[in-house]
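ok so I'm stuck.
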Amino acid sequence: MKKYKNIINKIKKAKIVFADITDNNANVLYEMGWARALEDKQVIIVRRKGSTKPKSDYQNDTYHEYDDSCRSTSLSKVIEDNILEVLEKNYGLIKRN
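replied:
not stuck anymore, here's the structure
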């Protein structure tokens, strides 16, 4: 229960939440739904290329795929691009060329 409360508290404090829905992990889907219910959150959904498509309403959402063979580079690029987009659109903090 303590671990669960810790995760929920981190979601409450975050402005941007990334959810990796690879393999339809029930805990991740629950936590993502919880984050989405908090209206001040930007929830960015990612999944590994070639993984099983989501088995929930999330299959209709936009999600970004990463290449598992070069996960650190591929996933880092997805995260960086999305953080920059959120900072630019929501906060006007970054201007990309």
